[in-house]
Amino acid sequence: MPVKIPDNLPAAGILESENIFVMSETRAAHQDIRPMKVLVLNLMPNKIETETQLLRLLGNTPLQVDVELLRIHDRESRHTPLDHMNTFYRDFEQVRHKNYDGLIITGAPLGQLDFAEVEYWDHIREIIDWSQQHVTSVLFLCWAAHAGLYHLYGVERRILASKRSGVFNHRRSLQHFPLLRGFDDEFFAPHSRYAEIPLAELQRHPALNVLAESDEAGAYLVLSKDNRNLFVIGHPEYQKSTLGDEYQRDTLAGLNPSVPLNYFRNDDPAQEPVARWHSHGSLLVSNWLNYYVYQLTPYDLSDMSAKTPWESKV
Q1: Where along the sequence does the record put site: Important for acyl-CoA specificity (predicted)?
Q2: Residue 142 is among the residues annotated as catalytic for this protein
Q3: Is 192 annotated as a binding residue?
Q4: pLDDT tens-digit map of 143-173
Q5: Any known ligand binding at 131?
Q6: Residue 103: what pLDDT?
């Protein structure tokens, strides 16, 4: 089934060339189908690249998904044309009165700042609090996962001595969770971050389940026990070139970055990267949409109550 996107969104042409099923708003208006309504709060600098990455994953699911894009502020971006932002993005005041099946909050290049130092931290907290009453399930990615774990559950992170960048092997920590259906015993996922939350702290938290972890990268999939909030401490949405692009950017900026581990063939940045996480990323998002959104959300979103769907159905 397709992802429904705004007419003329730049990602459409890229996704169609990859045989990802997307549908314009105009075409979708003639279909009598209740699509899943997913809001994406995009905090990444290159909005168009991140949109494409997320829509690629959403378009691989068997559900029709109606995507809306949300920005954290209306100031001009250095990496995305203002016309693009004004055409395709909504401000929070335009959506705060609405309910959604799902919300995705992306990572952000803020890994070395304390949360209180982030310029829009109060706005992030407001949106997270709003989501707990207006969204069936929330998917937090990388920096957003750390931010959500801190704000909702009081879990502190710590800044690393150097950036953790690379593709790491992970294993399932727990079995028999719908999110993990179809997962191999071990799988790969990319990481690109300056902070971590100690695995032991997450494991002993009474409101959280650690579903997947890595010896090298720590906790990866963390699910709240009420099943409303999924924290993915990594970047399953990254395309093949993204870690390499970040490495080249940091090199040109004189930051002397380490070569991303297990990413370039033979760990040689002169050679081609090896993508080994795309199938996992697609399955992860498909399972989230199916088991934690589609099967639980009300048909009429106006029926959503403060009580989570899981509390009444589990």
Answers
A1: 111
A2: yes
A3: yes
A4: 999 999 999 999 999 999 999 999 999 999 9
A5: no
A6: 98
Name the pTM for this structure. 0.87
| Cα–Cα dist 219/216, whole Å | 9
Greater pLDDT, 299 or 166: 166
Please confirm, yes or no, whether 237 is among the known catalytic residues. yes
Neighbouring residues of 124: CB distance < 8 A, sequence distance ≥ 6: 72, 118, 147, 151
| Catalytic member of 191, 205, 237, 280 | 237
Of 146, 170, 235, 280, which residue is the catalytic one?
A: 235
Domain 3-160+194-239+279-313 fold is: Rossmann fold (3.40.50)
Contact 171, 210 (CB under 8 A): no
Q: What is the pLDDT of residue 182?
A: 92
CA distance 196 to 210: 14
Q: Which residue is catalytic, options 134, 142, 170, 280?
A: 142
Every domain of the chain and the residues it spans: 3-160+194-239+279-313
Q: Does 313 belong to an annotated binding site?
A: no
All residues at 6 or more sequence positions from 60 whose CB lies less than 8 Å from its CB, including other chains = 20, 282, 285, 286
